[in-house]
TrEMBL record, chain A:
GO biological process: transmembrane transport
Protein name per its UniProtKB record: ABC transporter permease subunit
Organism domain of life: Bacteria
Family: Belongs to the binding-protein-dependent transport system permease family.
Subcellular location: Cell membrane
UniProtKB/TrEMBL annotation, chain B:
Keywords: ATP-binding, Nucleotide-binding, Transport
MF-aspect GO terms: ATP binding; ATP hydrolysis activity
Start and end residues of each ABC transporter domain: 29-260
InterPro entries: AAA+_ATPase (IPR003593), ABC_transporter-like_ATP-bd (IPR003439), ABC_transporter-like_CS (IPR017871), ABC_transporter_ATP-bind (IPR050166), P-loop_NTPase (IPR027417)
Highest taxon of source: Bacteria
Family to which this protein belongs: Belongs to the ABC transporter superfamily.
Annotated transmembrane regions: none
Name the UniProt record assigns to this protein: ABC transporter ATP-binding protein
Pfam family, one: ABC_tran
Region called Disordered, residue ranges: 1-20
């Protein structure tokens, strides 16, 4: 067997092929979608940017296509232009420079994480209060839901301006907006999670004459863990949106939101898209980290098979 | 009924130890009733129920669904409150019996906490009672031995079969050594082969632990095989229509189900069920 394998390692069939395996998981479908998107994107870039191409002499089709994909301020930048811009601002620019996207991302990330920490904590406390005091559910839940119907874009400038007037600027106002956006999914998820134990388990605790706190810590909290991570994933993404929105109204000097705003002032579409990609990558990374933590915790609890 | 060897002499009523004297009364219900107000009107879940369960007995409640057998068990456990009549558990009200942790309750489903392994599930009540860790482990190990689950301490519920899960839940109910074991159709969801096996094990366990057991079932063979006393119940309103002493020998094996004595008792149970239930639906 080992000799055979050494002689002809490639000719021996070993279950499904690489392609089949890729499509059995998520790799195949994801790659396919990305490829389709790229084709559509390039086609759209050519089509949208063509009117912007200026030339003294008539261009051949190939020259026109090349030109549409190499504009300095295209209507729709081509993916490779965004990647080049990302490489330039992430890898080739020192982190200390104001042009470094890493620095801007860090500014946004710091207020995202601060807002997330406070928002998640607030969301948790509200959920615990609501689960323990039934009358709070009727009185608080209405306001909690209402708070999320207010468009954040309208509230953000108010918060920034009011806090700015009393001398609070920088990270804190942005973190407040983040917290405002991200406490809700945590409250909603945890109210559901903490009340998720079925009747049987609640009866079981009753037969032990368990105190409310014993029931809380030994039954409700562990039962709510899957709900917690699901809501944290939503919350951390919402928190990033909050931080970016918080950077828009004042024309902040730093942060991904500031880059978006500056880019749109000066028609720097490539810069806008690069900031957008950085924000998406940031969100994906944070959600991924929460997901990894979830996997770890659930495995530790023995509930994930 | 041969319950005397199982009686705890320290709390007995003075009956001579070893003799076939009735044990102390553990559950005493008089004219017990329970009505639920539902959207469709008042439902008489229990109506005028008189019941005496003595120490060391194995009493089964049997009847069709809706006859109030589970409700009666839940009233004993203080999971429901009776709306009329009186009931005492070990001489006190059910609520007090519950706070004194006089009974262990086994539900229809194993109700194990999925994030706790078998050992941690069995120690759950002991943690809640504030027992120290060494005693917790000692109690849990002893009771896991009793239900033949030694060696499965580190397994999580999803790694066990349905029968093993229910055995773990029995070990959990016994872990704090309650006087009374209340079981609500514990083997109802299991297949017949597993159920037979667990019935035999339960009888052995009952003999070893000398608990008073109240057992809800809808299986006639199960009731006759396990019980010293069978309470036949009937629905609409939920009431007791017959109480049958099941005086088969204490050391029963599954073969006893073929004997004439067994079949005679099973027949009487079936007659009782038929009399109380018109089968018009």
């Amino acid at each position: 067997m080992t000799i055979d394998a050494a002689i002809a390692p490639a000719s021996r069939p070993r279950g499904p092929g690489l392609l089949a395996r890729a499509f059995a998981g998520t790799t195949g479908p994801v790659v396919t979608i990305v490829a389709v998107l790229m084709v559509v994107w390039y086609a759209a870039a050519v089509w949208l940017n063509a009117p912007l191409v200026q030339s003294e002499t008539p261009l051949s089709t190939a020259e026109l296509v090349d030109a549409t994909l190499a504009l300095e301020r295209p209507l729709l930048p081509a993916p490779h232009q965004i990647l080049i811009e990302l490489k330039k601002t992430v890898l080739d620019t020192p982190v200390t420079s104001k042009r470094s996207l890493v620095q801007h991302a860090w500014v946004t990330l710091s207020s995202t994480l601060t807002g997330f920490a406070f928002g998640a904590l607030l969301g948790l406390l509200l959920a615990v209060a609501i689960v323990h005091v039934r009358s709070l559910e009727k009185s608080l839940m209405f306001w909690i839901v209402s708070s999320q119907t207010i468009p954040i874009l309208a509230v953000a400038p108010i918060i920034i301006v009011v806090l700015g007037a009393i001398g609070v600027t920088g990270l804190v106002p942005k973190a407040i907006i983040s917290a405002y956006l991200c406490f809700f999914p945590v409250t909603a998820g945890m109210v559901k999670g903490l009340t998720s134990p079925d009747r049987l388990h609640v009866d079981l605790m009753r037969t032990y004459d368990a105190s409310p706190s014993a029931t809380f810590w030994k039954l409700r909290v562990p039962a709510s863990v899957p709900f917690l991570f699901t809501s944290l994933k939503v919350a951390i993404a919402a928190s990033l949106v909050g931080a970016i929105v918080g950077e828009l109204p004042t024309g902040a000097q730093a942060g991904l939101g500031a880059r978006l705003l500056a880019g749109s002032y000066y028609g720097q579409t490539i810069q806008i898209w690069a900031a957008l990609f950085a924000a998406a990558a940031l969100a994906a990374t944070m959600v991924g980290l929460v997901g990894a933590l979830e996997g770890f915790v659930l495995r530790q609890m023995g509930t994930r098979r | 009924m041969d319950a005397s060897p199982l009686r705890d002499p320290t709390i007995g009523t003075g009956a001579a130890a070893g003799g076939p004297a009735p044990g102390r009364v553990v559950i005493d219900a008089r004219a017990l009733s329970l009505t639920f107000d539902t959207a469709d009107g008042v439902v008489h879940a229990l109506s005028d129920v008189d019941l005496t369960v003595r120490e060391g007995e194995f009493v089964s409640f049997i009847g069709p669904s809706g006859c109030g057998k589970t409700t009666l068990l839940r009233v004993i456990a203080d999971l429901e409150r009776a709306t009329g009549g009186s009931i005492t558990v070990d001489g006190v009200a059910p609520a007090e019996a519950r706070t004194q942790r006089l009974y262990g309750y086994v539900f229809q489903a194993p109700a194990l906490l999925p994030w706790r392994n078998v050992l941690a599930n069995v120690t759950l009540p002991l943690e809640i009672f504030g027992m120290d860790k060494a005693s917790r482990l000692e109690h849990a190990r002893r009771n896991l031995d009793l239900v033949n689950l030694a060696g499965f301490e580190k397994k999580f519920p999803w790694q066990l079969s349905g029968g093993m899960q229910q055995r773990a839940s029995i070990a959990r109910a016994l872990s704090f050594d309650p006087k009374l074991l209340l079981m609500d159709e514990p083997f109802g969801a299991l297949d017949e082969i597993v159920r037979d096996k667990l019935n035999e094990q339960l009888l052995k366990l009952w003999a070893e632990t000398a608990k008073t057991v109240v057992f809800v079932t809808h299986s006639i063979p199960e009731a006759v095989f396990l019980s010293t006393k069978i309470v036949v119940m009937s629905p609409r309103p939920g009431r007791i229509i017959d109480v049958i002493d099941c005086d088969l020998p204490a050391d029963r094996t599954l073969e006893i189900r073929e004997t004439a004595q067994f079949l005679a008792i099973a027949h009487r149970v079936r007659e009782g069920l038929r009399a109380g239930h018109s089968y018009d639906d």
